[in-house]
Every structure is written in C-alpha cells, then in structure tokens.
Amino acid sequence: MSGLPRRKLLDEYFIENRTKLLDIAAFMDRLDRAAGDEESDFRLHAFIEALELLAGSKASRVQAIQMLFSDPTTNPLDKTNAKNAVGAYDPALNGASTAAGKTK
C-alpha cells in the first residue's frame, strides 16, 4: 500500500497518467488504421493482454504485466537477434504459454 492517501495520489499523478492512457489509445487507433496482417504478431497479443490485466482488479498489476512481457524460460537461446530488443516474449520460440495460459 502506498504511503499517500488516494486523494493525494489522484491530485499528484492523475494528469500525468491520463496523458499516458491517451498515448496508448492513440497507438491502438493507429494500429487499427494501419495496413497489414500483423494481428498474429506476438507483441500485439502481449500488449492487448497487458491492457486486459491493467483493467482487472488484481492487486499486483505491475508484476503480472512485467511477467507477461518477460521471457519465462531458463535456457539460453541458441541464437539471438542482437540488433534490437522486441519488448515482449515470443511464445512461438518455445511453444510456451502466456500468463493467461494461452499459446499464441
């Protein structure tokens, strides 16, 4: 539990987080308008699942979302694309399931 009362948290951080939500809404709108068939992209699936976790009432949303984006495997990859990070775990690499138990 935070040390600040709910009212103080709202007074202090509401506008900042409202802006973040609007940024996410704009990103989702751009994805909807964009051409292509990337609906099967693991990052989009993870992002949508993270939004569902965020909207839920689970007390540890941060942990649930971080674990959703994290690689749950313990074995190193044989080969990795060292040029860029993708920001989400691709379950297709090992046939693993996501936090919600769905294989993508």
Helix-and-strand structural type: mainly alpha
Distance between the termini: 34 Å
Count of folded domains: 2
Instruction: Look at the structure and give the mean pLDDT.
Output: 82
Number of helices: 3
Assembly form of the protein: single chain
Q: C-alpha Rg, in Å?
A: 17 Å
Q: State the order of secondary-structure elements, H for helix, E for strand.
A: HHH
Largest beta-sheet details = none
Q: How many DSSP-defined strands? A: 0
Helix content: 40-55%
Strand content bin:
under 5%
pLDDT < 50 runs, ≥5 residues: 96-104
Large-scale geometry:
extended
Task: Explain what the structure shows.
The protein is an all-alpha fold and 104 residues long. It folds into two domains: 35 residues; 49 residues, no CATH class. It contains three helices and no strands. α2 packs antiparallel against α3. The chain is extended. The C terminus is likely disordered.
